[in-house]
Amino acid sequence: MKRVWLTALAVAAFLGGCDGAAVADPPAAGDPTRGARLLAQYHCGSCHTIPGVASARGQVAVTLESFGRRSYIGGRMPNTAQVLVQWLIEPSSVIPDTTMPDMGVSEADAKDMAAYLGKLE
Ligand code: HEC
């Protein structure tokens, strides 16, 4: 009986694991052109390198190159549009011990920035 449960758990873990589902998730429904401008205005580039945002050449944090193809945010949370928007509004509400600071981003601005980041292939 125990073995049946373990097998079921293993199958569930396999199906829910790295199957690319998060990558296939559609980008946030925002305005990516406005998002690119906001990424510059919020100075995200003081820490991150962001392709297509001229001022964003930071080396302090991970590059956001190909971010749309990543499965995880902070290596731990699924990279879906909803989680990404919440991350941009308040990173510590997604990963409490993260070192990315809260940037005072509004929900509307977060959606537009997420729309841009989600398209980075
Ligand atoms: C003071 C430096 C700093 C600034 C400014 C900053 N970030 Fe970050 N960011 C980080 C750090 C550090 C991480 C890694 C966090 C972790 O792994 O817990 C991160 C992670 C991220 C991630 C997840 C990347 C991944 O592959 O896991 C995204 C997306 C992101 N930042 C977007 C932004 C945006 C958009 C802005 C501007 C609104 C911004 N960041 C401003 C430091 C910063």
List keywords for this structure.
single chain, 121 residues, mainly alpha, Cytochrome Bc1 Complex, Chain D, domain 2, two-stranded antiparallel sheet, 6 helices, 45% helix, binds heme C
Structure summary:
Helix content is 45%, strand content 3%. It has 121 residues and is mainly alpha-helical.
Structural summary, described in words:
It is a single chain. With 121 residues, the chain is mainly alpha-helical. It has one domain (25-118): Orthogonal Bundle (Cytochrome Bc1 Complex, Chain D, domain 2), CATH 1.10.760.10. Helix content is 45%, strand content 3%. It contains six helices and two strands, in the order H-H-H-E-E-H-H-H. A two-stranded antiparallel ribbon has the order 1-2. The termini are far apart. Residues 39, 42, 44, 46-48, 60-62, 64, 67, 70, 73-75, 88, 95, 98-101, 103, 105, 113, 117 line the site of heme C.
CATH superfamily: Cytochrome c-like domain
Task: Find the count of extended strands (DSSP E, 2+ residues).
Answer: 2
Average pLDDT rating: 87
- The residue ranges in which pLDDT falls below 50 over 5 or more consecutive positions are 7-22
How many domains is the backbone divided into?
1
How large is the count of helical segments?
6
CATH architecture: Orthogonal Bundle
Shape: globular
Could you give the topology of this structure?
Layout: H1 2-16, H2 21-24, H3 32-41, E1 72-73, E2 77-78, H4 81-89, H5 91-94, H6 107-118
Antiparallel strand pairs: 1-2
The chain binds heme C.
